[in-house]
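USER:
Try writing one entry.

ASSISTANT:
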Amino acid sequence: MHSAPPRLVDLYAAQVATGIRPGTLRVWLHRGKLTHHGHDRAGRTLIDLSELEALTASKAA
């Protein structure tokens, strides 16, 4: 079984997609709730949007 490739986005694109503020996402990264996937060419932090959506779905349940 293959997992889907990560959908890497910066924290600001993640905010547009989910409504969660970048500061909150940084805290979640620091606490290990999200996986850090490096930086883009502009130096912005990248996260997996699928992982974030799964995390928020589990918090809502």
Q: What stands out?
A: The first strand starts at residue 8 and ends at 10. The radius of gyration is 11 Å. The chain has a mean pLDDT of 92.
